[in-house]
Every structure is written in C-alpha cells, then in structure tokens.
Amino acid sequence: MAELKIGEQSKPRFEFRSFGQCFCEAHKRMARLSVPVPEKVWERESDEIYIISAKNDINNTKIRDGKMDIKTYVQTVDGLEQWNPLMKGEFPISREVLEKEVFPAFMVEMPKLTKDSYTFDEFIAMVKANPDLAAVRVHKQRFGYMVNNTICEVGNVLINGAKVVTINSESTEIEDIKKTIADVGLEGVENINYLQAIKRVIGMSDKPLANEVVCHRK
C-alpha cells in the first residue's frame, strides 16, 4: 500500500471531518499519536472564499489566491465521504467556463453573461446578486498530523468572522480512518463537510454544528 503524503495528490480519498467549538482532547491525542510530518504542514494559514448555494449540496466551490476549485461529491461508504475534483480555473475566468461548469455546479439560474471573461470582482458581484448564492469569507489556521497513515488536521476556522474548530482524517483506506477516529476519541461524532458547516453557520441551514460543547480544560 502506497504511503500517503501530505500536500501531494493521490487517488480520491475518503474523509471524516467534524466542526464544533472544541476538540481539545481529540487534538491532544491526535498530536501525540502522530508520526513526524514535514515542517511546512506544522501550521498553515489561508484566506478563502466559499461560494455557497441554497440549491446545491454536492458541489463544493472555493476560491484561493485567485484560483477557483470545485469538488463534487461521489459517494459515502461506512459514513465517510469521497469527493473528486470537478474543475479548476483562475481569474479572469471565461464566459464559456462560467456557462458550462461554474453556474451549473451551483444549480441556480444562469445570469446574463455579456462579456468574454470576468474578473474576480465581477464574478463576486454576480454571486451577491443571486438570492440563492452567498460568497463566504473563510480564514483557516491548520495544524497538520499523520495518524495511522491518514492525513489529519485540526483547524481554527473563521466563517465570516465566526470562529469554529474543525478536525479531520482522510485517506484512500477506509479502515485506517475508522481506526484513527477510534484512537483519537471521535467515535459517534457527526461527519460534516465544509459545505454543510458553512451553511449552518451562516443560517442557510437550521441544523446545529456537530459538536457545540464548551471546552473544559482539566
């Protein structure tokens, strides 16, 4: 079995991820169980824009450093989700790509496109003009680990300024993820992706976050 490497592409992975206010105990266990990881993934920060659609739960769209990345849901196996890349593009983005790939992924009415290409600001203006879409600012501070040959992280996430914590384990091997979930103490915690977590935080969904407990330090 090939070793997974953080930050490198592999065949499509399965993922467990959860969001809440505190995963302190699971974080401590994850850090202690982790093998050494490259220094570049010890701590990473990024600013991203997620495009959230009230009509769509299967395509996950984010923009980072002027590049758009859309992943699409494939399947759930043993409660773990698998997503594949759907498209990658950068701004300015062509009308053809917007017509054939981007807005169809949102599953909303196509805006009237009169130009051959659109800048980031022009695209965001179209998103804001559609009542079924939202452009959500997401800041991530991520701490990387490797447990049971699964790529793991704990992240402090600001969703339009609201702070939540995320924890995850991903791998091409489902059994390795399930062992990691058990080892770090996350059995029974809801598996929820970024798309659904953001919808809950911004009020597009009325469901609560998976883990809303207040952190109790021993």
Description:
The chain has 218 residues and is an alpha+beta fold. It has one domain: Hypothetical Protein Pfu-838710-001 (Beta Barrel), CATH 2.40.320. 24% of the residues lie in helices and 39% in strands. It contains 5 helices and 10 strands, in the order βαβββββαβαβββαα. The protein has helices at 24-33, 95-106, 120-129, 174-184, 194-202, and strands at residues 14-20, 44-53, 59-64, 67-77, 80-90, 93-94, 117-118, 133-147, 150-159, 162-171. The strands form 2 sheets. It has an 8-stranded antiparallel beta barrel, surrounded by 5 helices. A two-stranded antiparallel ribbon has the order 6-7. The mean pLDDT is 91.
Short description:
The chain has 218 residues and is of the alpha+beta class.
Strand order of the largest sheet: 1-5-4-3-2-8-9-10
> CATH superfamily, called what?
Hypothetical Protein Pfu-838710-001
User: What are the low-pLDDT stretches, counting only 5+ consecutive residues below 50?
Assistant: none
Count the DSSP helices.
Answer: 5
- The best one-word shape is elongated
Strand content: 35-45%
State mean pLDDT (0 to 100 scale): 91
Query: Got a strand count?
Result: 10
The Rg value, from CA coordinates, equals 18 Å
Oligomeric description of these chains: single chain
Classified by CATH, the class is: Mainly Beta
Total of domains: 1
